Amino acid sequence: MPDTAARARRFPPSIKFLAWNEAAERFSYYGMASILVLHMVRNLGFAENQSIAAYQLFTAGVYLTPIAGAFLADRYWGRYRTILWLSLGYVAGHAVLALWESAAGLAVGLALIAVGAGGLKPCASAFAGDQIPPEDEGLVARLYDLYYWMINLGSTASTIVIPLLLDKVSPRVAFGVPGLAMAAALALFWAGRGRYVHVPPSHRAAPATAAVARAMPGADPAAAPAGRVVLRILAVFAPISIFWALFFQYGSSWTLQAERMVRPVLPVVGQLAAGNVQTLDAAFVLTLIPLFAIVVFPAVERRGVRVTPLRKMTVGMYVTVLSFVAAALVEAALARGPVHVAWQIPQYFFLAVGEVLVSVTALEFAYSQAPRHLKSVVMACWYLTIWAGTFLTAIVAWVNRFQGVPYFVFFAGLMVIAAVVFTGVAWWYPDQRATAVRAAA
Fold first, then answer.
1. What phi, psi does 11 have (nearest 5°)?
2. Which end of the chain has fewer CB atoms at under 10 Å, N or C?
3. How far apart (Å, rounded) are the C-alpha atoms in residues 288 and 282?
C-alpha cells in the first residue's frame, strides 16, 4: 500500500501551476499599483488630490467586484472558467494602460483590471483549495502559507522593479511589464488545465444568497440565531472599515510624500524611486508575522494575558493611528525643508504592525466565528469593509478639504475614533468559541 503520510506531505501536481500563477498575477497588480499615482501626477496632469481619489476609487472597485466573481463561479461558469475569462480581461486592462496614454485610457484600463483582479479574488484561493483531496485536509494550512509567500514574492519583486522602469525607461514599458506578467499568469493557469480538480457550479440560487435569505428576520425561525451571529460579526467589521481607509494610502498619499523627499542613490539602479518605498510594507509584514507568532504572543501569554483575536485587533487599531501620526510629522518636517525618505520607515513599521494584528487576525476571527453555512456570506462582507474604507478615502481626497499636515491628522483622528468604537464592540462581543467551551463544560 502507498505511504499515506508521505502522500499527505506532497501537494497535487496542479498546485505548482496555481502557486506561480498567483505570484505572477500579484506581480502584475502590485507593480501597476506602485506607479499609478505617480503616472497620474507626472504624465497625465492630475492634481495630487485627484490622483489619490482615483487610486482609492480603483482600489474600492477591486474589493467590490469579488461578489460578482463569486456569483459567476458558484452559479454559472465554475471557478476554472471564471478565472480563465476574467484573466483575459485583466490582461486587456494592462494592455490598455500601456498603449492608450490618456485619462480615458486610464479609466478603461483600470475598469478592466478592477473587474479582473477583484473577480479573481474569491475564485483563485478557493480553486486552489479544491485541489486538495479530502483525505489530505492537513495540507490546506500549508497550501495557504505557500500562497501567502507567493503573493509577497510577486508584490515585493514588482515594487522594486516597476517604479525603476517608470523612472529610468518609460511609462509604456513600466505598465507593459506588469501586462506581460499577467499574460504569463494566464499561460501558467491554462498550462495546468489537464491536472485540475473541478467543482461544478450549482446552476441555481447561489449558496451565499440563499443563506442570507434564510437568515433574514421572519424567514426561518430556526435560522434566526445564525443571523444574529452574523450581525454581531458585522458590528465588529464596521469600525475596521476605517483601518482600510488608512491602509492603502501607502500606495497613494505616502508615495506622493516620498516623491518630495530626498532618496538615496543606489549602485547600478541609481536613485531610489518613490514607488520603491512601498516594498517596506511587505518586508515588515514578512518579518513581523513569525516574530509575533514565535516570540511576542507566547511572551504575552506567559505573563498570564490571554491572546485572543479581538485583543490583537484592538491593539492593532491603536497602533495604526501611530502610522498616520508619523506621516503627519514627516509632512511637517517636509514643510520646513528637504527630508530623507528614511523618515518614512516608522510609518511603514506601524502600518505593518497594524496589518498583522488587524487584517490577518480578522480573517481568522471571521472564519472561526461564522456559522458553517454562512462563512461565504461573512467573507463577502469582509471584502465590503475594504471597499467602504477605500471609497471613503476617495471621497475625502476628491473633496480636498485637507492638505498637507491636516490631511494626515484628519485620518489619524478618524482612526482614534474607530479604535475607541472597536474597543467597545470587542468588549461587548460574545466569543462563539468561548461560549461553546462553556456550554460543553
1. -75, 150
2. N
3. 10
Whole-number average pLDDT of the chain? 84
pLDDT score for 128: 79
CATH match for 12-193 among 3.30.505.50, 3.20.20.140, 1.10.760.10, 1.20.1250.20: 1.20.1250.20
Which comes out higher in pLDDT, residue 395 or 137?
A: 395
Could you state, in order of their start, the residue ranges of all structural domains in the chain?
A: 12-193, 208-441
- Architecture of domain 208-441 in this structure: Up-down Bundle (1.20)
pLDDT tens digits, one per residue of 358-385? 987 876 677 667 665 566 567 777 888 8
Cα separation, 250 vs 390, whole angstroms: 12
If you write DSSP's letter for every residue of 70-105 in order, what string do you get? HHHIIIIIHHHHHHHHHHHHHHHHHHHHHH--SHHH
What is the value of pTM for the model shown? Answer: 0.79
Distance CA 271, CA 396 (A): 32
Element (H, E) at 107: helix 103-130
